[in-house]
Amino acid sequence: MEPGRREAMLYERQEDGKVRCLLCRHGCLIGPGKRGICGVRENRGGVLETLVYARAIARHIDPIEKKPLFHVLPGSLSYSIATAGCNFRCRFCQNSDISQMPADHDGLIAGQDYPPETVVRDALAAGCKSIAYTYTEPTVYFEYAYETAKLARQKGLKNVFVTNGYESDEAVALIAPYLDAANVDLKAFSEEFYREQAGAKLSRVQDTLRAMHKAGIFLEVTTLVIPGLNDHPGELKALAEFLARELSPAVPWHVSRFHPTYRCTDRPVTPVATLLAAREAGRSAGLHYVYTGNIPGRGGEDTLCHSCGALLIGRTGYTISAFRLGAGKCPQCGTPAAGIWS
What we know:
Blueprint: E1 6-7, E2 11-13, E3 19-21, E4 29-30, E5 41-44, E6 47-50, E7 55-56, E8 58-63, E9 77-82, H1 96-99, H2 101-104, E10 112-113, H3 116-125, E11 130-133, H4 142-154, E12 158-163, H5 169-175, E13 181-185, H6 191-198, H7 202-214, E14 218-225, H8 233-247, E15 253-257, H9 272-284, E16 290-293, E17 303-304, E18 311-316, E19 319-323
Parallel strand pairs: 9-11, 11-12, 12-13, 13-14, 14-15, 15-16
Antiparallel strand pairs: 1-6, 2-3, 3-4, 5-6, 7-10, 8-9, 17-18, 18-19
């Protein structure tokens, strides 16, 4: 079999030679010789094949805070990998050169052979505490992530997804025993935004968030706040209320500053005041931890005790300046802090 190709997981054969992909909530019906929306899963003779198994296009050693995950082993390093492809078409994608490669370059899939056992070996050699499946969309290279995550768990490494949250219930159930945490992009709180800006549906992301939470995967959520598209105070308030009500008040929410990129260059940089207002909206909705991203040094990256307000973790950018969270509890009042601390 060609490099990167192997039979995919989670699909059903149809009588007419088509296949139904069950990996994500698009549920693509794929004809012979065709690919799904992601551009990296192909129907070859009635067999659905992944085209990116062990075909890494990016690998880096990152601070876990860069994901961003602030409540998962703070100050540790995460070995980060990705393949080409994505099942969304976000106009504001920050990694479009690799995530949108198949869509923008006539099906091109670049990458180098990098099998799961080598990923785990290199992560351990680099002193990393986790492996992050990130940069593009881990759902579209699920088989690769799944096999790597199983090996990583055996070696004592944590596994984290940085994802758009479109995994099917079946995919969540398969990965849950090996997936410790996920940062899910909840990109907006309107169906119009998801349809026009990402080619997806808000309701389906909500379904995945519920499924991950129920499965015991520790969640953090990120919203890139884009002027004029998803920054209405009422929308941000509703989003925060959804997190607090239907997931947990302890789910950390990151509201991040937008910079013009890819096909979304007609919008300005997010004003700092908008992010500060979003943070207050999150707190008012009952969320315990709300962070401002891409505006370092303003205190919006610090973790505070939600009970007494004491500083638990001080941060500037990706650097930990103070860590006062002994045994996962506030040293001042003893209130537990949600997260994976050891």
